[in-house]
Amino acid sequence: MEHYTIATIAEKSPDFRRVLWTGKHTQLVIMTIPPGGEIGEEVHEVDQILTFVSGTGEAKVSGQTRKVNQGDLVVVPAGHKHNFTNEGPNPLVLYTVYGPPEHAEGAVHKTKEEADALEEAGKDEPPQS
């Protein structure tokens, strides 16, 4: 059994992205977006569910924009363009579930720049089932 006090773990992580668990069909990832930062506009071939633990931000999914705060959950279906930005003075902390996995098992990306570089280099690939 895997057990997480997810909000506590997410808030303690200084990393932009940290993969906590990878299964055959889903993956659990925590993220911390610094003030003024963003995930970056992207489109995944997988579904994604994001739950916000702390901070304030903006969600942009398929051209629709909404504010996000602690306790909010946003669903991004596969194939939809999206971005999440930190609009507040504190880190925007969240956890996300991908289905199927989107990142390399156990991946830790300290910054967005590191995450982008590893993705571009093909070094952040999900496990093959």
Automatic annotation (TrEMBL):
<dbReference type="Pfam" id="PF07883">
    <property type="entry name" value="Cupin_2"/>
</dbReference>
<dbReference type="InterPro" id="IPR011051">
    <property type="entry name" value="RmlC_Cupin_sf"/>
</dbReference>
<dbReference type="InterPro" id="IPR013096">
    <property type="entry name" value="Cupin_2"/>
</dbReference>
<dbReference type="GO" id="GO:0016853">
    <property type="term" value="F:isomerase activity"/>
</dbReference>
<dbReference type="InterPro" id="IPR052538">
    <property type="entry name" value="Flavonoid_dioxygenase-like"/>
</dbReference>
<feature type="domain" description="Cupin type-2">
    <location>
        <begin position="30"/>
        <end position="98"/>
    </location>
</feature>
<keyword id="KW-0413">Isomerase</keyword>
<dbReference type="InterPro" id="IPR014710">
    <property type="entry name" value="RmlC-like_jellyroll"/>
</dbReference>
<feature type="region of interest" description="Disordered">
    <location>
        <begin position="105"/>
        <end position="129"/>
    </location>
</feature>
<protein>
    <submittedName>
        <fullName>Mannose-6-phosphate isomerase-like protein (Cupin superfamily)</fullName>
    </submittedName>
</protein>
